[in-house]
UniProtKB/TrEMBL annotation:
Domain HNH nuclease: 360-412
Biased composition (Low complexity): 253-263
Family membership: Belongs to the Rv1128c/1148c/1588c/1702c/1945/3466 family.
Name listed for the protein in its UniProt record: HNH nuclease domain-containing protein
CDD domains assigned: HNHc
Superkingdom: Bacteria
Region of interest (Disordered), ranges: 233-269
Length: 457
Protein backbone atom coordinates (compact mmCIF):
# COMPACT_ATOMS: atom_id res chain seq x y z
CA UNK A 1 0.00 0.00 0.00
CA UNK A 2 3.03 2.28 0.32
CA UNK A 3 3.07 2.94 -3.41
CA UNK A 4 -0.62 3.83 -3.35
CA UNK A 5 -0.06 6.28 -0.51
CA UNK A 6 2.82 7.82 -2.48
CA UNK A 7 0.56 8.15 -5.51
CA UNK A 8 -1.96 10.02 -3.38
CA UNK A 9 0.70 12.42 -2.19
CA UNK A 10 1.72 13.05 -5.79
CA UNK A 11 -1.91 13.83 -6.58
CA UNK A 12 -1.85 16.50 -3.87
CA UNK A 13 1.23 17.99 -5.56
CA UNK A 14 -0.46 18.05 -8.98
CA UNK A 15 -3.56 19.73 -7.57
CA UNK A 16 -1.52 22.25 -5.59
CA UNK A 17 0.54 23.17 -8.64
CA UNK A 18 -2.61 24.28 -10.46
CA UNK A 19 -4.10 26.28 -7.59
CA UNK A 20 -5.67 28.76 -7.75
CA UNK A 21 -7.38 27.60 -10.92
CA UNK A 22 -10.35 28.70 -13.01
CA UNK A 23 -11.90 25.46 -14.22
CA UNK A 24 -13.80 27.23 -16.97
CA UNK A 25 -10.58 28.12 -18.80
CA UNK A 26 -9.13 24.59 -18.77
CA UNK A 27 -9.29 22.70 -22.04
CA UNK A 28 -10.68 19.16 -22.01
CA UNK A 29 -7.48 17.17 -21.39
CA UNK A 30 -6.24 19.34 -18.50
CA UNK A 31 -9.73 19.31 -16.96
CA UNK A 32 -9.87 15.49 -17.09
CA UNK A 33 -6.40 15.25 -15.52
CA UNK A 34 -7.33 17.75 -12.83
CA UNK A 35 -10.54 15.81 -12.02
CA UNK A 36 -8.56 12.59 -11.62
CA UNK A 37 -5.95 14.26 -9.41
CA UNK A 38 -8.62 15.87 -7.21
CA UNK A 39 -10.40 12.54 -6.76
CA UNK A 40 -7.16 10.74 -5.92
CA UNK A 41 -6.24 13.43 -3.39
CA UNK A 42 -9.77 13.23 -2.01
CA UNK A 43 -9.38 9.53 -1.31
CA UNK A 44 -6.28 10.26 0.72
CA UNK A 45 -8.18 12.91 2.68
CA UNK A 46 -11.04 10.45 3.25
CA UNK A 47 -8.57 7.97 4.72
CA UNK A 48 -7.13 10.62 7.00
CA UNK A 49 -10.61 11.74 8.13
CA UNK A 50 -11.65 8.20 9.03
CA UNK A 51 -8.28 7.62 10.69
CA UNK A 52 -8.83 10.71 12.83
CA UNK A 53 -12.35 9.55 13.71
CA UNK A 54 -11.01 6.15 14.74
CA UNK A 55 -8.33 7.75 16.93
CA UNK A 56 -10.83 10.11 18.58
CA UNK A 57 -12.94 7.03 19.30
CA UNK A 58 -9.98 5.13 20.77
CA UNK A 59 -9.07 8.06 23.03
CA UNK A 60 -12.60 8.53 24.33
CA UNK A 61 -12.91 5.26 26.23
CA UNK A 62 -14.93 5.86 29.42
CA UNK A 63 -12.29 4.01 31.43
CA UNK A 64 -9.86 6.86 30.73
CA UNK A 65 -11.80 9.21 32.99
CA UNK A 66 -10.44 12.75 32.86
CA UNK A 67 -7.91 11.64 30.24
CA UNK A 68 -10.72 10.98 27.76
CA UNK A 69 -10.16 13.19 24.72
CA UNK A 70 -13.88 13.92 24.37
CA UNK A 71 -14.08 15.03 28.00
CA UNK A 72 -11.08 17.29 27.54
CA UNK A 73 -12.94 18.96 24.66
CA UNK A 74 -16.18 19.31 26.64
CA UNK A 75 -18.03 16.46 24.95
CA UNK A 76 -19.40 13.12 26.11
CA UNK A 77 -18.93 11.11 22.90
CA UNK A 78 -16.17 10.94 20.29
CA UNK A 79 -18.43 12.33 17.57
CA UNK A 80 -19.28 15.31 19.73
CA UNK A 81 -15.57 16.05 20.14
CA UNK A 82 -15.02 15.57 16.41
CA UNK A 83 -17.86 17.96 15.61
CA UNK A 84 -16.36 20.60 17.91
CA UNK A 85 -12.85 20.35 16.46
CA UNK A 86 -13.66 19.99 12.75
CA UNK A 87 -16.84 22.14 12.57
CA UNK A 88 -18.52 19.41 10.51
CA UNK A 89 -22.17 18.51 11.15
CA UNK A 90 -23.17 16.29 14.06
CA UNK A 91 -24.56 13.76 11.59
CA UNK A 92 -21.33 13.59 9.59
CA UNK A 93 -19.18 13.30 12.71
CA UNK A 94 -21.33 10.44 14.00
CA UNK A 95 -21.18 8.68 10.61
CA UNK A 96 -17.39 8.97 10.47
CA UNK A 97 -17.01 7.28 13.84
CA UNK A 98 -19.55 4.57 12.92
CA UNK A 99 -17.83 3.89 9.60
CA UNK A 100 -14.42 3.69 11.27
CA UNK A 101 -15.79 1.11 13.72
CA UNK A 102 -17.30 -1.01 10.93
CA UNK A 103 -14.13 -0.81 8.85
CA UNK A 104 -12.20 -2.29 11.75
CA UNK A 105 -13.92 -5.60 10.95
CA UNK A 106 -12.28 -5.64 7.52
CA UNK A 107 -8.54 -5.18 7.83
CA UNK A 108 -7.96 -5.21 4.08
CA UNK A 109 -10.56 -2.50 3.42
CA UNK A 110 -9.29 -0.43 6.34
CA UNK A 111 -5.74 -0.55 5.00
CA UNK A 112 -6.95 0.40 1.52
CA UNK A 113 -8.77 3.44 2.91
CA UNK A 114 -5.74 4.53 4.92
CA UNK A 115 -3.57 4.25 1.79
CA UNK A 116 -5.99 6.32 -0.30
CA UNK A 117 -6.90 3.42 -2.60
CA UNK A 118 -10.56 3.55 -1.55
CA UNK A 119 -12.53 6.69 -0.85
CA UNK A 120 -14.98 6.83 2.01
CA UNK A 121 -18.04 6.33 -0.19
CA UNK A 122 -16.41 3.40 -2.01
CA UNK A 123 -15.44 1.70 1.24
CA UNK A 124 -18.92 2.05 2.72
CA UNK A 125 -20.60 0.77 -0.47
CA UNK A 126 -18.36 -2.31 -0.52
CA UNK A 127 -18.60 -2.92 3.20
CA UNK A 128 -22.39 -2.79 3.58
CA UNK A 129 -23.20 -6.04 1.70
CA UNK A 130 -20.39 -7.88 3.55
CA UNK A 131 -21.29 -6.79 7.09
CA UNK A 132 -24.05 -9.37 7.76
CA UNK A 133 -21.63 -12.19 6.86
CA UNK A 134 -18.52 -10.79 8.56
CA UNK A 135 -19.05 -12.57 11.90
CA UNK A 136 -20.14 -15.91 10.43
CA UNK A 137 -17.89 -16.43 7.41
CA UNK A 138 -14.37 -17.84 7.33
CA UNK A 139 -11.86 -15.06 8.04
CA UNK A 140 -9.54 -16.06 5.21
CA UNK A 141 -12.43 -16.04 2.74
CA UNK A 142 -13.53 -12.59 3.94
CA UNK A 143 -10.01 -11.27 3.38
CA UNK A 144 -9.90 -12.82 -0.09
CA UNK A 145 -13.20 -11.17 -0.94
CA UNK A 146 -11.97 -7.77 0.27
CA UNK A 147 -8.71 -8.08 -1.69
CA UNK A 148 -10.67 -8.89 -4.85
CA UNK A 149 -13.03 -5.96 -4.32
CA UNK A 150 -10.17 -3.53 -3.67
CA UNK A 151 -8.53 -4.63 -6.94
CA UNK A 152 -11.81 -4.19 -8.80
CA UNK A 153 -12.29 -0.70 -7.34
CA UNK A 154 -9.08 0.42 -9.05
CA UNK A 155 -10.54 -0.16 -12.51
CA UNK A 156 -14.34 -0.24 -12.20
CA UNK A 157 -17.00 2.31 -11.20
CA UNK A 158 -18.38 2.01 -7.68
CA UNK A 159 -21.71 0.61 -8.92
CA UNK A 160 -20.04 -2.39 -10.53
CA UNK A 161 -17.92 -3.02 -7.44
CA UNK A 162 -21.03 -2.98 -5.24
CA UNK A 163 -22.62 -5.65 -7.45
CA UNK A 164 -19.48 -7.76 -7.00
CA UNK A 165 -19.66 -7.20 -3.23
CA UNK A 166 -23.26 -8.42 -3.20
CA UNK A 167 -22.21 -11.54 -5.08
CA UNK A 168 -19.38 -12.13 -2.57
CA UNK A 169 -21.85 -11.76 0.30
CA UNK A 170 -23.80 -14.75 -1.02
CA UNK A 171 -20.58 -16.76 -1.22
CA UNK A 172 -19.56 -15.83 2.32
CA UNK A 173 -22.96 -16.54 3.85
CA UNK A 174 -25.31 -18.53 1.56
CA UNK A 175 -27.96 -18.73 4.29
CA UNK A 176 -27.82 -15.04 5.09
CA UNK A 177 -30.65 -14.22 2.70
CA UNK A 178 -33.28 -16.13 4.68
CA UNK A 179 -33.35 -13.97 7.83
CA UNK A 180 -33.36 -10.84 5.66
CA UNK A 181 -36.27 -12.27 3.71
CA UNK A 182 -38.23 -13.05 6.87
CA UNK A 183 -37.66 -9.53 8.18
CA UNK A 184 -38.81 -8.10 4.84
CA UNK A 185 -42.09 -10.03 5.02
CA UNK A 186 -42.82 -8.46 8.40
CA UNK A 187 -42.09 -4.96 7.05
CA UNK A 188 -44.27 -5.17 3.93
CA UNK A 189 -47.03 -2.57 3.53
CA UNK A 190 -49.16 -0.74 0.99
CA UNK A 191 -50.74 2.61 1.82
CA UNK A 192 -52.97 5.08 -0.01
CA UNK A 193 -52.60 8.73 0.97
CA UNK A 194 -55.09 11.58 0.92
CA UNK A 195 -56.05 13.48 -2.21
CA UNK A 196 -54.08 16.62 -2.98
CA UNK A 197 -54.15 18.65 -6.20
CA UNK A 198 -56.16 15.94 -7.93
CA UNK A 199 -53.73 13.14 -7.11
CA UNK A 200 -53.60 10.46 -4.43
CA UNK A 201 -50.11 9.30 -3.58
CA UNK A 202 -49.49 5.74 -2.56
CA UNK A 203 -46.47 4.22 -0.93
CA UNK A 204 -45.37 0.78 0.06
CA UNK A 205 -42.67 -1.80 0.36
CA UNK A 206 -43.01 -5.33 -1.02
CA UNK A 207 -40.91 -8.43 -0.44
CA UNK A 208 -38.84 -9.28 -3.50
CA UNK A 209 -41.15 -12.14 -4.45
CA UNK A 210 -44.26 -9.96 -4.47
CA UNK A 211 -42.49 -7.10 -6.23
CA UNK A 212 -41.24 -9.47 -8.92
CA UNK A 213 -44.78 -10.64 -9.66
CA UNK A 214 -46.04 -7.05 -9.94
CA UNK A 215 -43.04 -5.97 -12.00
CA UNK A 216 -43.40 -8.91 -14.39
CA UNK A 217 -47.03 -8.05 -15.08
CA UNK A 218 -46.34 -4.37 -15.61
CA UNK A 219 -43.30 -5.04 -17.79
CA UNK A 220 -45.26 -7.46 -19.93
CA UNK A 221 -47.63 -4.67 -20.93
CA UNK A 222 -45.28 -1.68 -20.81
CA UNK A 223 -42.04 -2.94 -22.33
CA UNK A 224 -42.33 -2.75 -26.12
CA UNK A 225 -39.42 -5.17 -26.52
CA UNK A 226 -40.61 -7.79 -24.04
CA UNK A 227 -41.57 -10.20 -26.80
CA UNK A 228 -44.96 -10.85 -25.23
CA UNK A 229 -48.02 -11.44 -27.35
CA UNK A 230 -49.62 -8.41 -25.70
CA UNK A 231 -47.70 -5.19 -25.15
CA UNK A 232 -47.97 -1.46 -25.55
CA UNK A 233 -47.10 -0.11 -28.95
CA UNK A 234 -43.48 1.07 -29.13
CA UNK A 235 -43.16 4.80 -29.45
CA UNK A 236 -40.38 7.30 -29.75
CA UNK A 237 -40.57 8.08 -26.04
CA UNK A 238 -39.73 4.48 -25.11
CA UNK A 239 -36.41 4.68 -26.96
CA UNK A 240 -35.57 8.29 -26.16
CA UNK A 241 -32.80 9.29 -23.79
CA UNK A 242 -34.60 12.57 -23.17
CA UNK A 243 -35.66 11.80 -19.61
CA UNK A 244 -36.48 14.33 -16.93
CA UNK A 245 -37.62 13.40 -13.41
CA UNK A 246 -38.36 9.85 -14.58
CA UNK A 247 -40.68 11.06 -17.32
CA UNK A 248 -39.97 10.88 -21.02
CA UNK A 249 -41.16 13.50 -23.44
CA UNK A 250 -43.77 12.03 -25.78
CA UNK A 251 -43.88 12.63 -29.51
CA UNK A 252 -47.07 12.88 -31.55
CA UNK A 253 -46.99 11.44 -35.04
CA UNK A 254 -49.77 10.32 -37.36
CA UNK A 255 -50.24 9.71 -41.07
CA UNK A 256 -53.07 8.55 -43.26
CA UNK A 257 -52.10 4.92 -42.61
CA UNK A 258 -50.31 5.16 -39.26
CA UNK A 259 -52.33 6.06 -36.13
CA UNK A 260 -51.06 8.63 -33.61
CA UNK A 261 -48.26 7.46 -31.37
CA UNK A 262 -49.14 6.38 -27.84
CA UNK A 263 -47.98 9.45 -25.91
CA UNK A 264 -47.90 7.87 -22.47
CA UNK A 265 -44.59 7.60 -20.67
CA UNK A 266 -43.59 4.17 -19.30
CA UNK A 267 -44.48 5.32 -15.78
CA UNK A 268 -47.92 6.42 -16.94
CA UNK A 269 -48.46 3.10 -18.68
CA UNK A 270 -47.62 1.24 -15.49
CA UNK A 271 -50.16 3.34 -13.59
CA UNK A 272 -52.84 2.55 -16.19
CA UNK A 273 -52.09 -1.18 -16.05
CA UNK A 274 -52.28 -1.14 -12.26
CA UNK A 275 -55.67 0.60 -12.40
CA UNK A 276 -56.95 -1.85 -15.01
CA UNK A 277 -55.90 -4.85 -12.92
CA UNK A 278 -57.78 -3.57 -9.86
CA UNK A 279 -60.85 -2.56 -11.87
CA UNK A 280 -61.00 -6.01 -13.52
CA UNK A 281 -60.58 -7.71 -10.14
CA UNK A 282 -63.51 -5.70 -8.75
CA UNK A 283 -65.74 -7.12 -11.52
CA UNK A 284 -64.58 -10.72 -11.09
CA UNK A 285 -67.25 -13.13 -9.78
CA UNK A 286 -64.95 -14.47 -7.07
CA UNK A 287 -64.24 -11.02 -5.61
CA UNK A 288 -65.77 -10.58 -2.12
CA UNK A 289 -68.91 -8.44 -2.12
CA UNK A 290 -69.59 -5.35 -0.04
CA UNK A 291 -73.19 -5.13 1.08
CA UNK A 292 -74.19 -7.65 -1.56
CA UNK A 293 -72.46 -5.84 -4.43
CA UNK A 294 -69.00 -6.07 -5.89
CA UNK A 295 -66.58 -3.30 -4.84
CA UNK A 296 -68.04 -0.14 -6.37
CA UNK A 297 -66.84 3.44 -6.78
CA UNK A 298 -69.69 5.59 -5.47
CA UNK A 299 -69.87 8.94 -7.27
CA UNK A 300 -72.33 11.67 -6.30
CA UNK A 301 -73.11 14.41 -8.84
CA UNK A 302 -76.05 16.79 -9.32
CA UNK A 303 -78.33 15.71 -12.16
CA UNK A 304 -77.89 18.91 -14.17
CA UNK A 305 -74.11 18.71 -13.95
CA UNK A 306 -74.20 15.04 -14.92
CA UNK A 307 -76.31 15.72 -18.00
CA UNK A 308 -74.29 18.70 -19.20
CA UNK A 309 -70.88 17.30 -18.29
CA UNK A 310 -69.98 20.57 -16.56
CA UNK A 311 -69.43 20.92 -12.85
CA UNK A 312 -68.00 18.72 -10.11
CA UNK A 313 -68.73 15.35 -8.55
CA UNK A 314 -67.69 13.63 -5.34
CA UNK A 315 -66.26 10.12 -5.00
CA UNK A 316 -67.10 8.53 -1.68
CA UNK A 317 -64.03 8.31 0.56
CA UNK A 318 -61.96 10.86 -1.35
CA UNK A 319 -61.28 14.38 -0.14
CA UNK A 320 -61.14 16.16 -3.48
CA UNK A 321 -63.83 16.42 -6.17
CA UNK A 322 -63.63 15.10 -9.72
CA UNK A 323 -65.18 16.60 -12.82
CA UNK A 324 -68.70 15.84 -13.98
CA UNK A 325 -67.09 14.52 -17.16
CA UNK A 326 -65.28 11.89 -15.10
CA UNK A 327 -68.53 10.99 -13.38
CA UNK A 328 -70.19 10.42 -16.77
CA UNK A 329 -67.33 8.18 -17.92
CA UNK A 330 -67.51 6.11 -14.73
CA UNK A 331 -71.28 5.78 -15.20
CA UNK A 332 -70.78 4.48 -18.73
CA UNK A 333 -69.03 1.41 -17.39
CA UNK A 334 -70.67 0.98 -14.00
CA UNK A 335 -74.10 2.50 -14.55
CA UNK A 336 -75.89 5.00 -12.34
CA UNK A 337 -79.01 5.50 -10.23
CA UNK A 338 -81.04 8.66 -9.90
CA UNK A 339 -81.77 9.66 -6.30
CA UNK A 340 -84.19 12.53 -5.70
CA UNK A 341 -83.48 14.46 -2.48
CA UNK A 342 -85.35 17.44 -1.10
CA UNK A 343 -83.75 20.56 0.39
CA UNK A 344 -83.63 18.91 3.82
CA UNK A 345 -81.72 15.90 2.49
CA UNK A 346 -84.70 13.54 2.59
CA UNK A 347 -84.75 10.85 -0.12
CA UNK A 348 -87.88 11.23 -2.24
CA UNK A 349 -87.24 8.61 -4.91
CA UNK A 350 -84.66 5.95 -5.77
CA UNK A 351 -84.55 5.10 -9.44
CA UNK A 352 -83.37 1.97 -11.22
CA UNK A 353 -79.81 1.45 -12.38
CA UNK A 354 -79.32 2.89 -15.88
CA UNK A 355 -76.76 2.67 -18.67
CA UNK A 356 -75.04 -0.29 -17.08
CA UNK A 357 -73.74 -2.96 -19.44
CA UNK A 358 -74.76 -6.42 -18.26
CA UNK A 359 -72.37 -9.29 -17.71
CA UNK A 360 -73.63 -10.90 -20.92
CA UNK A 361 -73.15 -7.71 -22.91
CA UNK A 362 -69.56 -7.49 -21.67
CA UNK A 363 -68.97 -11.09 -22.75
CA UNK A 364 -70.39 -10.38 -26.19
CA UNK A 365 -68.21 -7.28 -26.52
CA UNK A 366 -65.17 -9.31 -25.49
CA UNK A 367 -65.88 -11.81 -28.28
CA UNK A 368 -66.46 -9.11 -30.90
CA UNK A 369 -63.89 -6.43 -29.94
CA UNK A 370 -61.30 -8.63 -28.17
CA UNK A 371 -59.92 -5.58 -26.34
CA UNK A 372 -59.49 -1.83 -26.67
CA UNK A 373 -60.32 -0.99 -30.27
CA UNK A 374 -57.88 1.92 -30.59
CA UNK A 375 -55.22 0.82 -33.12
CA UNK A 376 -52.07 -0.36 -31.38
CA UNK A 377 -53.56 -0.51 -27.88
CA UNK A 378 -53.06 -3.91 -26.31
CA UNK A 379 -55.35 -3.70 -23.30
CA UNK A 380 -57.31 -6.98 -23.22
CA UNK A 381 -61.09 -7.06 -23.03
CA UNK A 382 -61.24 -8.04 -19.36
CA UNK A 383 -59.37 -4.85 -18.46
CA UNK A 384 -61.43 -2.50 -20.65
CA UNK A 385 -64.34 -0.19 -19.94
CA UNK A 386 -67.60 -0.09 -21.86
CA UNK A 387 -68.13 2.96 -24.06
CA UNK A 388 -71.36 4.22 -25.64
CA UNK A 389 -70.56 5.13 -29.25
CA UNK A 390 -73.63 7.32 -29.49
CA UNK A 391 -73.74 9.36 -26.26
CA UNK A 392 -76.66 9.26 -23.87
CA UNK A 393 -77.31 12.95 -24.44
CA UNK A 394 -77.99 12.13 -28.10
CA UNK A 395 -80.28 9.24 -27.24
CA UNK A 396 -77.69 6.49 -27.48
CA UNK A 397 -79.00 3.25 -25.89
CA UNK A 398 -77.13 0.77 -23.70
CA UNK A 399 -77.38 -1.79 -26.45
CA UNK A 400 -74.72 -4.09 -27.85
CA UNK A 401 -75.03 -2.26 -31.19
CA UNK A 402 -74.07 1.00 -29.50
CA UNK A 403 -71.33 -0.31 -27.21
CA UNK A 404 -67.64 -0.99 -27.62
CA UNK A 405 -64.55 -1.55 -25.47
CA UNK A 406 -61.94 1.08 -24.62
CA UNK A 407 -59.16 1.05 -22.06
CA UNK A 408 -59.32 3.67 -19.32
CA UNK A 409 -56.79 5.94 -21.03
CA UNK A 410 -58.48 5.99 -24.43
CA UNK A 411 -61.95 6.13 -22.85
CA UNK A 412 -60.85 9.22 -20.94
CA UNK A 413 -59.43 10.72 -24.14
CA UNK A 414 -62.02 9.71 -26.73
CA UNK A 415 -64.03 12.95 -26.70
CA UNK A 416 -61.03 15.25 -27.06
CA UNK A 417 -58.41 13.04 -28.71
CA UNK A 418 -57.66 12.39 -32.36
CA UNK A 419 -59.97 9.36 -32.66
CA UNK A 420 -63.61 9.28 -33.77
CA UNK A 421 -65.96 6.28 -33.52
CA UNK A 422 -69.16 5.24 -35.21
CA UNK A 423 -71.15 2.04 -35.74
CA UNK A 424 -70.81 0.77 -39.29
CA UNK A 425 -73.51 -0.56 -41.59
CA UNK A 426 -72.45 -4.11 -40.73
CA UNK A 427 -73.09 -3.35 -37.03
CA UNK A 428 -69.44 -3.34 -36.02
CA UNK A 429 -67.51 -0.30 -34.75
CA UNK A 430 -65.54 1.87 -37.17
CA UNK A 431 -62.78 4.32 -36.40
CA UNK A 432 -60.85 7.16 -37.97
CA UNK A 433 -58.26 9.61 -36.72
CA UNK A 434 -57.08 13.10 -37.54
CA UNK A 435 -53.59 14.07 -38.62
CA UNK A 436 -52.96 17.76 -38.97
CA UNK A 437 -56.05 19.25 -40.56
CA UNK A 438 -56.97 15.98 -42.29
CA UNK A 439 -58.98 12.92 -41.27
CA UNK A 440 -58.55 9.35 -42.46
CA UNK A 441 -61.17 7.18 -44.08
CA UNK A 442 -63.33 5.11 -41.74
CA UNK A 443 -61.95 1.60 -41.10
CA UNK A 444 -63.18 -1.33 -39.06
CA UNK A 445 -62.16 -0.91 -35.42
CA UNK A 446 -60.39 -4.21 -34.86
CA UNK A 447 -58.23 -4.87 -31.80
CA UNK A 448 -54.74 -4.68 -33.37
CA UNK A 449 -52.16 -4.68 -30.57
CA UNK A 450 -49.20 -4.99 -32.92
CA UNK A 451 -50.34 -2.08 -35.10
CA UNK A 452 -50.85 -4.36 -38.07
CA UNK A 453 -53.66 -2.50 -39.76
CA UNK A 454 -53.68 -4.62 -42.90
CA UNK A 455 -56.73 -6.50 -41.64
CA UNK A 456 -58.54 -3.26 -40.85
CA UNK A 457 -58.35 -1.60 -44.24
Amino acid sequence: MASDRQSGCEAFARVSALLPVSLAVLTDDPLVGFAQAVEEAGRVLDGLRLGVAREFDNRTDETLGEDSLARKLGAKRPWGALETVTRTSAKDARERVAEARRLAKFAVLEAAVEAGVLGRAQAVAIMEPLLPAADRADTALVEAACENLVDLSKVLPATAVVEAAEAWALVLDPDGVEPVEKAAVEKRFFRLGRAKDGLVKFSGALPVEQAAAVRALLDAYVNPRAGASVMFTPNAADDSNDVEDGRQKPMLTATETEPPTDTRTPDQKRADVMHAVFAAAARAPETPTMGGSHPTVLVVVPKDDFETGHGAARIDGEDEPVSAKTAKRIAETGGYQEVQIDSAGKILNLGDTKRCATVWQRKALAVRDKGCIIPGCTMPARWCEVHHIRPDRDGGPTDILNLTLLCWFHHNDIDTGPYQLRMGDDRTPEIRWTFGSHATEWIKAIHTPKRDLSTAT
